[in-house]
Amino acid sequence: MIKRGVATFTLDTGQCPKWLYDRMVRLGREMVWVIAQEYGPDEFIKRISDPVWFQSLGTVLAFDWNASGLTTILTAALKGAIRGDEKRLGIFICGGKGRTSRKTPDEIKNWGGTLSLPEPKINNLVYNSKMAAKVDSALIQDGFQIYHHSFFFSKNGAWAVVQQGMNTRNQTARRYHWYSKMVTDLVREPHSGIITQTKAATLDLTAKESEGTRKLSTDLARGSYRNLMNDIQILRKHSSELSQMVALRHGKDELTLLNLKNREFFWHPVVTEDFSKSRYLERILFKVCEIRPDNYEKLLSLEGVGPKTMRALSLVSEVIYGARPSYEDPARYSFAHGGKDATPYPVDRATYDSTIAFFSRLVRKMKLPFSEKNKILKKLC
What we know:
- Helix 6 packs antiparallel against helix 7.
- Strands 1, 2, 4, 5, 6 and 7 form a 6-stranded antiparallel beta sheet that branches. This protein has a two-stranded antiparallel ribbon with strand order 3-8.
- The two termini are 21 Å apart.
- Helices cover 52% and strands 12% of the residues.
- It has helices spanning 18-39, 41-48, 51-60, 69-81, 86-89, 104-114, 119-139, 211-222, 225-249, 263-266, 270-275, 279-291, 296-301, 307-320, 349-365, 370-380; strands at residues 7-10, 91-97, 140-141, 145-154, 159-167, 172-179, 191-194, 203-204.
- The protein folds into 3 domains: 7-200, no CATH class; 210-320, no CATH class; 349-380.
- By secondary structure, the chain is of the alpha+beta class.
């Protein structure tokens, strides 16, 4: 299982044919029931959080392995597959693509009420869902805008997040996975997996190397608003000189600040975008300094705090106080099992064989005609 890592695919523009989607729902229903009965609902949640397993499931259900649509269609198909059987299975799927993603908190609350869960437990599930979305949009600034968010949870409280962002500039999508039992800190390397085909220029404020930035950003937020604005005024005044200085330091002709090359997020004058004439940013920073959050997680959780606020605090922390965050893309893997030419890494035969064996066992236990089982097994073997 991938312990750390994110998945990048080409953007899909077409629609999944109804005949295929209907079959994915039927096959997905059989697979979910077998997993829940054989291994329990918590095991299903755990496997969904594994980007390799999720990708394999999508492929077994007959979707293109390298298309962004696998994420959205597979999630919708699984949601449709268990509809009406959620309580019996002990598995619940909330959210989805676009507007549906914004309904996630209400769907969690509705299921919590149906299950008579204690209010604190319901609120905790909602909080984890919202924070996962915030972390991947505000703390991992890699040029991908989140447009799909789904929250899976079991009757026992295990949860997983599968969300996807798009980069319209290079026509790719990237998927982020979370698993409750692997999250020890929501703002410090919380992902169970991020797979990618292409690396991106990234400001990763979740990395362990960004610990100094997280601490200083919290100190700034807990300090004097006037002092913080004085620091920002310095960056406003010298943004052009800083850009040129760092560009020369890295031997580049273009004007960049802090070696951030992705123009969509980091092309400077980003300092101008973030700091100059930004009354909204000033209002948010004033609010933050008034509240004085106890830690970085509480800082991020505040209403109105988003990518610009966290980036502004990061820039002040680095440029004024020398706390350099990580600019390494947290994505670690490209394909489910590696490539035959060892690119991006050699085929992991043990994981590959284990994945095939697992799905083969599931298929054999499904209530499907023998001919259909054979077709699926031929794909696997």
